[in-house]
């Protein structure tokens, strides 16, 4: 099936963090593509990727980067698609640098920023975005949420066993 979500990251070193977004999409059987696209090291590739994504059938982009994390914001500036930013924590500053780089976008160019290292939620948010126009996917998200509720109830009950 043709990919409908693009997962991109500034470096292959971001993959251990970003993998969780791919796993979430796979759980919901949402086809996705993965690639390294750097805002600083491969500027022309970033422009090509962002400008061509909608035309290729991509409906949401998950972009992760660490440090001076300009990739999500630059991609959001180049595409009308929803962009979800994942702040990747690096060795220094515990990801605060990535978080602030991604979340502090100027009005007019939104990036839906998840928590530091929160790639799983980025994947789940992409599922919800697609689910807004896909009843089957929306139902699977509702089922998933019911599963979370059941799990918490079981753990709660286990405390008193
Ligand atoms: C950022 O620089 C990347 O997103 C990565 O988090 C960070 C370090 O990249 P490498 O030096 O590990 O390739 O652009």
UniProtKB/TrEMBL annotation:
BP terms from Gene Ontology: 'de novo' IMP biosynthetic process
Binding site residues for substrate: 11, 14, 41
UniProt keyword rRNA-binding present: no
Residue ranges of every copy of the PurE domain listed in the record: 3-152
Enzyme class name: isomerase
EC number: 5.4.99.18
Stretches assigned to coiled coil: none
Catalytic reactions on record: 5-carboxyamino-1-(5-phospho-D-ribosyl)imidazole + H(+) = 5-amino-1-(5-phospho-D-ribosyl)imidazole-4-carboxylate
Record Gene3D superfamilies: 3.40.50.1970
Keywords noted in UniProt: Isomerase, Purine biosynthesis
Pathway assigned to this chain's UniProt record: Purine metabolism; IMP biosynthesis via de novo pathway; 5-amino-1-(5-phospho-D-ribosyl)imidazole-4-carboxylate from 5-amino-1-(5-phospho-D-ribosyl)imidazole (N5-CAIR route): step 2/2
Top-level taxon: Bacteria
GO MF annotation terms: 5-(carboxyamino)imidazole ribonucleotide mutase activity
InterPro entries assigned: PurE_ClassI, PurE_dom, PurE_prokaryotes
NCBIfam families per UniProt: purE
Family: Belongs to the AIR carboxylase family. Class I subfamily.
HAMAP family in alphabetical order: PurE_classI (MF_01929)
Function summary: Catalyzes the conversion of N5-carboxyaminoimidazole ribonucleotide (N5-CAIR) to 4-carboxy-5-aminoimidazole ribonucleotide (CAIR).
Protein name, entry field: N5-carboxyaminoimidazole ribonucleotide mutase
Origin species: Actinoplanes siamensis
